[in-house]
Amino acid sequence: MKKIFAVALGILTAIGGFVDIGDLVTNAVVGSRFGMSLTWVVLLGIVGICVYADMSGRVAAVSGRATFEIIRERLGPRAGLANLTASFLINLLTLTAEIGGIALALQLAAGVGPGMWIPVALFGVWIVVWRTKFSIMENVTGLVGLCLIVFAVALFLLNPDWGTLGTQASQPWTQITGNPLSYWYFAVALFGAAMTPYEVFFFSSGGVEEGWTRKDLGTERANVFIGFPLGGMLSLAIAACAAVVLLPKAIEVTSLSQIVLPVAQAGGKLALAFVIVGILAATFGAALETTLSSGYTLAQFFGWSWGKFRKPAQAARFHLSMIICLLIGGGILATGVDPVAVTEVSVVFSAVALPLTYFPILVVANDPEYMGDEVNGRMRNGLAVFFLAVIMVAALAAIPLMIITGMGS
Amino acid sequence: MNGRPRRVIAVAVALSTGMALTGCAATQASIEPMAGNALAATRSAELSIRLDLAGRTFPTTYDVQLGDMATQLANTISQLEQTSTADAAAERARTKTLAASRDAVDAIHLAQSGHDVRAEKDLHSAADKLAKLAGDQ
């Protein structure tokens, strides 16, 4: 019974914790511009993140060590440094976007400008990272994040023409208007948002935090192969709500306040309250994850003592690095930069950094020295290599598409 | 320096100046995306007002939505004000887009001061004008 409860809780938190500011913004922007015609990218991204998160979680469960530690040991400091640089910088950018997302969600609730909420968000994230137990932190934000299910409820309440949505999804070429390169730019951005690097590092380090062993592989697989796809369905619901309400009115999403419009139209104040709480929980949870991931990547590369299972005094450099990352993120936002713009940039650069993040995981997951009999099989390797090829194409195309299309405009 | 390289430089300068000038001056087609941006903000504000009139939104969220759309329109207005046009047709489009965008901002200010019904009408009228200018998006 306890085992079933643990698996169910893991799945629920995986669903609630799947969506972050990148998914929220990118899916709403895409839904309002191209309808459901980029559904295939979301589905591709979900399968891709499942394949690599499973590998990353398995490495942690079998070896008892986080992926990053092994990458440095297995590939050497130079390859490890390339992996660290790419992952850490993208993580920092994502952390900045998440802090901005918290401020914008609080602004929607309170009406006071986001600038005032940034210090509050920074303090909130720091105090939780400093004081709260890992499992409580993960479960509470994940479960409250389930409020985002209101997007799916809103979609049914809007009573859309399912046939039209289906046609948009199955015949994507019919929705490409204007510059077709903008469509491909958003395809790359959406893929980057779905496969954000911090998710796999957090998942793997979280496995070590929670003391996963081979016995927990079932829980790990349930989290990944049930929780992540259901979380991904929320991404599609966000895009669908925008496609039903905003696209016919030619409203292109440029701010977080527009993302909640379809939900308010469908369900009124109650639904609006749920969506604001859900956005707050999703961005807060992702801010915690990215803050911890920043500390994890640095500490695991440099061999510092790390983990929330240790007292802060026993992992001083780990905690100090997270405080510095939070201050850098807050500093970037204090310049007055639009958090939504930071989010859009972060998902594109995330796509650029993907090969440096995911290739080493594939190498480690194939090493019998670490994995024993849990090395990747043919099927897993086939999928992983396929996704690595997709990742390479997305990474190479991201920057040229961003420049040519003027960020998809 | 002999005559030939000078001529080559002169032609290159003339060509690049011409390209720069034509590149900077907006045609009617390049005004359309700006009208599209203004239209998106106007319709978004209109939807927010409708939701507020129907009691489906919180006053705080409503204020943020109107503020965001006013900012977006102000950015478009500023962009339009700095745009130089290539011909008379483009200038007409620019002036009309500017006027409709300003009407939309005024309507949002009206809504912010509590006159939702009038603001909705004004926004609707501004949106109609902007839709035509944006090529009926």
Structural overview:
The complex is a heterodimer of chains A (409) and B (137). By secondary structure, chain A is mostly helical. Helix content of chain A is 80%, strand content 0%. Chain A has helices spanning 2-16, 21-34, 39-63, 67-110, 114-131, 134-145, 150-157, 162-170, 180-194, 197-209, 217-245, 256-259, 261-302, 316-334, 339-365, 368-371, 378-405. The relative contact order of chain A is 0.21. The mean pLDDT of chain A is 91. By secondary structure, chain B is an all-alpha fold. Chain B has one domain. Helices cover 83% and strands 0% of the residues of chain B. The termini of chain B are far apart. The chains are: A mainly alpha (409), B mainly alpha (137). Chains A and B meet through helix 4 and helix 13 of A and helix 2 and helix 3 of B.
Structural domain tally of chain B: 1
The largest sheet of chain A, given as strand count, sense and whether it forms a barrel, is: none
What CATH architecture of chain A do you see?
A: Up-down Bundle
Which class do the helix and strand fractions of chain A yield? mainly alpha
Low-confidence stretches of chain B: 1-5
**Overall average residue pLDDT of chain B:** 85
| SSE arrangement of chain B, N to C | HHHHH
**Helix-strand pattern of chain A, N to C?**
HHHHHHHHHHHHHHHHH
Class inferred from helices and paired strands of chain B: mainly alpha
Main interface: chain pair and counts: A-B, 25 and 27 residues
- For this entry, what is the oligomeric state of its chains? heterodimer
Question: How far apart, in Å, are the first and last alpha carbons of chain A?
Answer: 53 Å
Strand tally of chain B, please?
Answer: 0
